[in-house]
Amino acid sequence: MQPTLYSFRRCPYAMRARWALLQAGLLVQWREIALKAKPQEMLDASPKGTVPVLVLGDGSVIDESLELMRWAFAQANPRHLVLNGASTALIAENDGAFKFHLDRFKYTDRYPGESRQNHQQAGLGILRVWSDRVAADGWLTGPQMSLADGALWPFVRQWRIADPDGFDDDARLTPLRQWLQHFLDSPDFERLMQRADPWSPGGHQPVFPADAIPVPLDQPLFHLALASDWRAAQTSGGYSVSTRGLTLAQAGFIHCSWEHQVQGTFQRFYRDAGEVLLLQINPADVAAPLRADASPCGELFPHLYGALPLLAVSAAKRYPQETA
Ligand SMILES: N[C@@H](CCC(=O)N[C@@H](CS)C(=O)NCC(=O)O)C(=O)O
Fold this sequence. Notes:
The protein is an alpha+beta fold. The protein contains twelve helices and 15 strands.
């Protein structure tokens, strides 16, 4: 059974959670809520009444965004997002001091007696230090994207919306602006900001992501592979090529096809690739999440969000088949 997610579109905690679910190739029952009219079902699962809340198939509840991210990346971490201790300290600073100043800067009328300008300076001060980190290493905690990057960007985006001049005119924030743009330019951003009407019991039940469907486990999947990559996988014990010229870690998933899509995929990407094999995959034998996502032209393709175990491949035949 798919987990159930209670979410609110613009909430930065729910955004970081949905971002992680997208990366991990997961599909959930999506219950968008109105903060002013929380469904009783959500409050029964988590009486503290904050989003996001994820209710798993066994009834257990995750109602802290960071735990939800960690749970998602425990299911699959195809891009090798770094789950390091340095992230924990930065996330604590974000959810603590930075959010404190963001709220008081953004909603000054709710905090009588507070100085908007003081909170702006304090918030920008934190952002400058984060920007220096990005300038030094590429990402917040080092040369690779980590949990901190995924957890903080929705809050930095909120600051930018609240304080466009302060954020855009500060030369020291240039690296952080580029860092934020990376997340906003990704196709994931549009997907995680999809809209839904607030959920009501008995009403329409969408899934998140709304443009994806589950992959049926009783239909074989197919993947076109360079024969040399497949041979290398026999030695290394696992296959992790996404598509021609891209690794699983680069793309975030392994491209697959249903039977009727194989020929088109071959024509588009492999016709001049030399020796090509068609791998037939039993979807019930893969451990990593499978999700069918819409391609840029809208067609749904099955994607595997982890390495392909050799045992899940029931046949590897030359493609197109040689005629005698
Ligand atoms: N520590 C929680 C904080 C979540 C949170 O505060 N979410 C806000 C929305 S952005 C909320 O649900 N507030 C309840 C309300 O406004 O009634 C987490 O990380 O999940």
